[in-house]
Amino acid sequence: MTSGQMKASLGCAPSKITSPTTSPPGNGSFIGRPPNNPITIPRQLTKNQTSTACQRSTVRHSQLKTNAPRDHHFVAAQPINRYNKNKSMRMIGTIENETHARLFSDYLYVLGIENQVEEDEPPAWVLWIHSDEQIDKASGLLAQFKADPQNPRYRQGAKSAEDRRALAEQAELAARRRMIDGRQALVRQGSFGMGPLTLLFIGVCVAVSLISNFGDRASLISSLFIASSYNLNASMFERLLSLREIGQGQVWRVFTPIFIHYGFIHLLFNMLWLKDLGTAIERRESTGTLAVMILTIAGISNLAQFLSQGPNFGGMSGVVYGLLGYIWIRGKHDPSSGYHVPPPTVVFMGVWFLVCAFGWISNVANVVHGVGLAIGIAWGYRAAKHS
Predict the structure, then answer these.
(1) 182-385: which CATH architecture?
(2) Short-list 78, 149, 83, CA closest to 119
(3) 3-state secondary structure of 14
(4) Is residue 316 pLDDT above 50, yes or no?
(5) What is the Cα–Cα distance from 323 to 198, expressed in whole angstroms?
């Protein structure tokens, strides 16, 4: 995978990197001739009758294109076949007065009942409810409205709906501003289009690889391994005690195996992923956040790998899996965060993880991969729930 492919496949480039899945448009006016008499008797339509009514309304709307903006639940000049949408709607009745129809629709919106209003055969405005579970409640509220359309609570509901739409528009605008355009993010983040910490980590990895000839001259980088000895037959507690160098103050050994790479391809792919993922987090959050994430993921996953298989391992891939898991889950559960990883990228990394885990590629530190990914997923989920 090339660097260009990485940026295209990974959403850290839009680290949409995406805004919320639904975005209520701004307030708008509805088109039609408002009659004076309030309401007709609600009628239940069959599916075929509903489709006919929708088609008739569709024709009328296509002929009424104006400059009036759309409301989130009013439809004007927008052809719609209700039963061909992903979310079918049900009619609960009609109101003969446009002002009253708007008033009641706003009232339902404030109560959390998604609805739409369309012009039917004059003089009537058809009320549609999105969710079947809310049909009975909405029908009861409609009956109450018809009995007393001048009740002050409906005026208050309209004001609340206006305020809610304004807040929703502000939230949508803020989310769009948080979206990361990958090209802009990489260009604005300092040298070579990378965040400063990302660039630093890549530089250290490259330097260590060149000095050690990609791990062949291990004696030159011995102080970067997590430990110098290991007893496979020892208990877990005894293995921890074998971390003598760390116990003597060489704490950096918990983290520094991430700088060791065995081969050019090993280094190249890890650095390409780190470039995109690290820069996305630095751009979206901060350099400090990325530093804490890398050190946490590296420290825990390195210790887990040591306890399971010993000290002879290295690479940034555990951190890469952790950062990918974080961005993936954070964007999935918190779209306004601006993070997004395209499904094909998730599938690719999942397949690669399994290929390594089942031993089809030898000499892979699979514990580092699994622990790093688990930490990133947990971190992303927690961050999403507390955002």
Answers:
(1) Up-down Bundle (1.20)
(2) 78
(3) coil
(4) yes
(5) 12
